[in-house]
Design a protein that fits this description.
six-stranded antiparallel beta sheet, 379 residues, Jelly Rolls, dioxygenase activity, alpha+beta, dioxygenase
C-alpha cells in the first residue's frame, strides 16, 4: 500500500471507529443537537473528523500565479487608484473562499504592490509582520523606524511587527513592483490585529541610509557596543548579490539536499534564528538538471522564481514556472522541484510560517518512499 493510499485508509478507519458515520441519526439525537445549539454547544462526535484529523489537511490548494498574467493588471492599478486613495496599491493573491482572511496559502498573505516615480505612502504600523521581495524597477525605498532602506531587484527586506514604515520611489526612479508577504491571516485568526497611521503621516529619517546593512550585514561579524533587544532581525535588508554568492559557494562544497538541492535560510545575525518570530524565509539554488525527490512537511510556503525555469510537482499536479512566477505549497502536501535547464541554475525565494511550526513543536517532515521518491503526475 502506498503512502497516499495509507492516508485514505487512515481517514476511513477514523470514520469507522470514532466518527460521525458510526452514529446514526434518530429523531432523539437530532432533537438533542438542536437543544445543544441553543446553549452554543454541540456533540463532539458529530464534528470530530473535521477538527481532529489523522493528519493535516490544508484548506488551501496548490496554485501557480504566472507573472506574465498578473503584471499588466498590477501596473494598471496605478492608472486606477492613487496610493493616497488605496493606502497600498496591491493586487493580492487569493487561495481562500471569501474575503475574510484572503490568504495565499494557509495563514499567509501575499500580494504584488506597485509604485510610480515620485510616489510615496503614508507611514503606518501594524501588528502583522511583513516582508518585501523586490521584483522589478529602480529607485524604490522603505523607511522603517526612521531608517531609509533602498530596495533593489531581488533584495529581501523586513518590516518587523509594530515598526513605523512607509514606502516610495525616488522621482528619478522607474515604476516598481515588489511582492509583499505578511502573517496577517494568522494575526486575524488570533484576533490580535492592530493598525495605526503615523500622526504626522510621514516619519523623519533619523538614521543613516541603509544603517542596518552597515552594522549587521557583514557575514560572521558583529559590531561592538551596538545593542538590539527586539525579537526580529536587526538587519532589515538582505542583498541579492551577497545571497547569490553564498549559494554558489555552498554549491561548490556540498552535494546538496535530495529535495531542495542548495538551500540557505535568511537569519537574524545576532541569534542565527529566523528573521522574524512568525515569518521565515530562504533562498535555494537548483543546479542545472537537478531533479528533486518529493517530501512533505507541516507549514505553509510561498515561492517566487528569482532565476531560471523548471517545474514543481505539488500533490500530483505539475506546475511549470519561469522567472517571477509565484506558487504555493500547502501544509503536508508532497512537493518536488526540477530545474529543466542543463546549463543554467534556478533560484527560488521562499517564505513561510516555519518559525511558528518550530516554536510550537508542530513541525513534522517525511520523504515520499513510493516510486523512487517521485509522485505520479495527474494534472
Amino acid at each position: 500500500m502506498s503512502q497516499q493510499e495509507n492516508t485514505q485508509s487512515h481517514d476511513q478507519c477514523r470514520e469507522d471507529i470514532a466518527g460521525r458515520a458510526n452514529v446514526a441519526d434518530s429523531p432523539e439525537l437530532l432533537a438533542y443537537y438542536k437543544e445543544l445549539e441553543k446553549y452554543r454547544a454541540g456533540a463532539l462526535w458529530s464534528i470530530v473528523n473535521a477538527i481532529e484529523p489523522w493528519q493535516p489537511k490544508s484548506a488551501s490548494v496548490p496554485v501557480l500565479w504566472r507573472y506574465r498574467d498578473l503584471r499588466d493588471h498590477v501596473l494598471k492599478s496605478a492608472d486606477l487608484v492613487t496610493p493616497e486613495e488605496a493606502g497600498r496599491r496591491v493586487v493580492y493573491l487569493n487561495n481562500a473562499e471569501g474575503p475574510k482572511f484572503s490568504t495565499a496559502v494557509g495563514l499567509l498573505y501575499s500580494g504584488l504592490q506597485t509604485m510610480r516615480p515620485g510616489e510615496s505612502s503614508s507611514a503606518h504600523a501594524h501588528t502583522a509582520s511583513a516582508l518585501r521581495f523586490i521584483m522589478e524597477g529602480s529607485g524604490a525605498y522603505s523607511i522603517v523606524d526612521g531608517q531609509k532602506i533602498p530596495l533593489e531587484v531581488n533584495d529581501f527586506v523586513l518590516t518587523p511587527n509594530g515598526t513605523w514604515h512607509e514606502h516610495g520611489v525616488d522621482p528619478e526612479g522607474s515604476q516598481c513592483i515588489w511582492q509583499d508577504g505578511l502573517d496577517m491571516p494568522l494575526v486575524n485568526v488570533l484576533e490580535a490585529g492592530f493598525y495605526k497611521v503615523h500622526p504626522d503621516l510621514r516619519q523623519a529619517v533619523t538614521e543613516p541610509v541603509d544603517a542596518s546593512v552597515a552594522l549587521w550585514g557583514a557575514p560572521a561579524l558583529r559590531p561592538q557596543n551596538v545593542g538590539w533587544d527586539k525579537p526580529s532581525s536587526p538587519l532589515f535588508r538582505y542583498q541579492w548579490a551577497a545571497t547569490y554568492e553564498a549559494l554558489q559557494q555552498y554549491a561548490r562544497v556540498s552535494e546538496g539536499s535530495p529535495f531542495d538541492d542548495i538551500l540557505m535560510y535568511y537569519t537574524n545575525p545576532l541569534t542565527g534564528g529566523h528573521v522574524m518570530p512568525t515569518l521565515g524565509a530562504s533562498m535555494q539554488l537548483l543546479r542545472p538538471g537537478f531533479i528533486g525527490k518529493a517530501h512533505r512537511h507541516t507549514g505553509s510556503f510561498i515561492y517566487q522564481v528569482v532565476k531560471g525555469q523548471g517545474y514543481s510537482v505539488i500533490d500530483g499536479q505539475r506546475f511549470d514556472w519561469q522567472e517571477r512566477d509565484i506558487f504555493c505549497v500547502p501544509s503536508w502536501a508532497f512537493h518536488e522541484h526540477v530545474n529543466t535547464s542543463q546549463t543554467e541554475d534556478a533560484c527560488l525565494f521562499c517564505f513561510g510560517d516555519l518559525p511558528v511550526m518550530q516554536a510550537l513543536q508542530l513541525y513534522y517532515e517525511e520523504a515520499l518512499t513510493d516510486n523512487d521518491g517521485h509522485q505520479p503526475v495527474g494534472g
